[in-house]
Design goal:
Elements: H1 23-29, H2 34-51, E1 58-63, H3 70-86, E2 91-96, H4 123-139, E3 144-147, H5 154-157, E4 163-166, H6 174-182, E5 187-190, H7 198-207, E6 212-216, E7 222-226, E8 233-237, H8 248-260, E9 267-270, H9 283-295, E10 301-307, H10 336-356
Parallel strand pairs: 1-2, 1-10, 2-3, 3-4, 4-5, 5-8, 8-9, 9-10
Antiparallel strand pairs: 6-7
């Protein structure tokens, strides 16, 4: 009888297959030298110390919703470096440099997937652009934070990242919990879009233990990953179903959930998304409310996230007109002057908390 080839039963809906560069080759082309590795490692250690409250500063992850223009993002990084140095005694500033955009339905999926902003999907070019920008930001002395969405891309960029996030849409995914258990930096787990905090608490527990799962190694070859578990995973509150969860009551309930699960009681609060009603102009109001809790001695809040870019608001991708430089094409962001004000207010709140708890042991 004639043999039925695999081509008859597989890849029936694949239009074409393009070779993917290996992580090792990209690392060779765009190396992380020793001086940049120190920035990464110092950022990781400092973030872990803030999470463990061995350092009483506030972690602030701030930057564009997603990077679509590396030149504008680097311009933003230069400004952020100055603010980070100004507030270094009170804030540990990590630049948000997100390249993968999870979509509820359809839309632009981020610089790695579509660097041309035109649906051409040149992933190899996207990976190069992403890694090049990360190295440029590190050269400024700024640690970076990324959301990890695709389970393969961390091999290409994770060596440059000091803080990572698992998003609200993927926090329930076993794949992402396994991935987090092996990543080398602290990972924030966001509550689900429907507001479920318990799901993120479950994710923290799952990522904290060893796992075995298939992946790729740095050469791009299929491999079985045996992880040790990640003790630096933590909860990120971002609101849900149009309702915020940054108020004192929500903070207390979330800390109680962590306590009941036997996990460290530490929270990062996302001032955007449902916590701001998806209105970028409300992020400073959220930050003010958080500053009041910090000044009152709330030690369970160890970090804040802000979506911020050079120009406030957002714009649509429109092939008939040029994009405005420095404005988001995904979620609306704070502008730079407003961001400077929020950072100054948060730094003042940290000083007030420190004065209220001179032993350094902020209350939970």
């Amino acid at each position: 009888m004639p043999t039925i080839g695999m081509g008859r039963t597989s890849d029936q809906r694949i239009d074409r297959i393009v070779p993917l560069t290996t992580p090792a080759l990209l690392h060779h082309e765009l190396p992380l030298d020793e001086s940049l590795a120190r920035v990464v490692l110092d950022g990781r250690r400092s973030a872990a110390r803030v999470l463990d409250r061995e350092d009483d500063r506030l972690l602030v992850v701030v930057g564009p919703c997603s990077v679509h223009d590396p030149a504008a993002a680097l311009n933003y990084a230069r400004r952020l470096r100055v603010a980070a140095a100004e507030h270094a005694d009170d804030l540990l500033v990590v630049m948000r440099v997100y390249f993968e955009k999870p979509r509820s339905t359809v839309g632009w999926k981020g610089l790695i997937n579509d660097p041309g902003l035109d649906g051409s999907g040149d992933v190899n070019a996207g990976l190069r652009a992403a890694r090049a920008l990360l190295l440029d930001v590190l050269r400024l002395g700024l640690p970076v934070g990324c959301e990890f969405l695709d389970p393969i891309t961390p091999q290409y960029i994770a060596d440059t990242v000091s803080w990572g996030a698992i998003g609200a849409r993927t926090v329930e995914s076993q794949v992402h919990r396994q991935l987090s258990s092996g990543l080398s930096m602290p990972i924030g787990m966001k509550n689900r879009p429907d507001g479920s905090v318990g799901t993120a608490v479950d994710a923290i527990r799952a990522a904290g233990v060893p796992h075995v799962f298939p992946g790729i190694d740095v050469s791009g070859a299929p491999a079985i990953m045996h992880t040790r578990g990640n003790a630096d995973c933590h909860l990120v509150l971002r609101g849900g179903r149009g309702e915020p969860n940054y108020d004192a009551g929500s903070v207390g309930r979330s800390l109680a959930l962590l306590r009941a699960a036997g996990l460290p009681e530490r929270l990062v609060i996302d001032a955007s998304h449902d916590n701001s009603g998806k209105d970028h102009r409300r992020q400073p109001l959220v930050a003010t409310a958080l500053a009041e809790q910090l000044a009152d001695g709330q030690g369970g809040i160890v970090g804040v996230m802000l979506e911020s870019f050079l120009v406030p608001g957002r714009q649509d991708l429109d092939p008939t007109r040029p994009l405005e430089y420095g404005q988001s094409i995904t979620d609306a962001c704070l502008g730079w002057p407003e961001t400077e004000g929020v950072l100054a207010d948060l730094a003042a709140a940290v000083r007030a908390r420190r004065a209220a708890t001179p032993t350094g042991a902020a209350r939970d």
